[in-house]
Each structure stands twice: as structure tokens, then as C-alpha cells.
Amino acid sequence: MTYESVTPLAQVLGMTIFILLFAGAVAYALWPSNKDKFKRAAESLLDDDRLED
């Protein structure tokens, strides 16, 4: 196996892994059951009394 023969396979495999990870992250972010968790996390910074120092 030479570098020239392995390079296209590595590129396709790397892009496939990237697409799968990206699709998983988007699915996790948009999953309906995570909505409340993300809303609490976003509002927790605004409700923190320690930031008023």
C-alpha cells in the first residue's frame, strides 16, 4: 500500500466520521426531551446571585 492509495480511503473515512458526529450533535441538541435541560442551563446564569458582587 502506498500513500497515494491510502489517502482517498482515509479522506472518505474521516469525512464519514465527521458527518456522523455532527449529525449526532445536532440530533442531541434538537431532541425534544433536552429542551428543559437547555432552558434551565441558559437561565441559570441569569439567576445566579454570586454574579452581583
In angstroms, what is the radius of gyration? 21 Å
Number of helices: 2
Query: What series of H and E elements makes up the topology?
Result: HH
Regions with pLDDT < 50 over 5+ consecutive residues?
Answer: none
Produce the secondary structure layout.
Elements: H1 3-30, H2 35-47
Question: What descriptors fit this protein?
Answer:
77% helix; 53 residues; mainly alpha
What features would you describe in this structure?
By secondary structure, the chain is mostly helical. It has one domain. The protein is built from two helices and no strands. The model has no long low-confidence stretch (mean pLDDT 89).
What is the gist of this entry?
77% of the residues lie in helices and 0% in strands. The chain has two helices and no strands.
